[in-house]
Amino acid sequence: MTVVRPIEDEEGWQEWVESRPPCVRELIKQLPPDRLYRLDGDGHRVLIHSYNEDGTVCVDVSGDYNFVIFERSVFGVNPADLEECDLPSANEPCGVALTDDQQVESYCEEHRNGRGKEFIDSMLENVRPNNPGDLP
Question: How far apart are CA 135 and CA 92, in angstroms?
Fold first, then answer.
């Protein structure tokens, strides 16, 4: 268990949890918000952003725990697709390639047009992960 965001006001937190619908309380019990999870499929490490009454969660994919093209929130994630995980190893690259909103929009447009790889390759020529000394 890796706690990455300790709950500072435990009493206030418990009060808030008790005020949620039963389905949300069950999600919170199953997936506490202070933990780091790995998203099945793409393998990104994520944090819980919110719990939804439809039984899904919203997660944040950030460069704090992954090397990503751009940071984002992903809605409608099935809890079964999340598994608690450890922090990245010391030699694992973490960071964000595109931080400017216009770059992200351009990348998404190029990706939709089938040219995403070429676009990101050109953008990554000048981008290094947070811990570049660990790269081969």
Answer: 8
The answer to whether the CB of 13 falls within 8 A of the CB of 57 is no
- CA–CA distance, 49 with 111 (Å, rounded to integer): 26
- From first to last of the 136 residues of the chain, give the pLDDT tens digit: 678 999 999 999 999 999 999 999 999 999 999 999 999 988 999 999 999 999 999 999 999 999 998 899 999 999 999 999 999 999 999 999 888 888 888 878 877 888 777 777 776 665 555 554 444 4
DSSP state letters, 2-21: -BSS--S-HHHHHHHHHTS-
Q: How far apart are CA 32 and CA 128, in angstroms?
A: 32
> What's the whole-model pTM score?
0.80
Cβ(92)–Cβ(63) below 8 Å: no
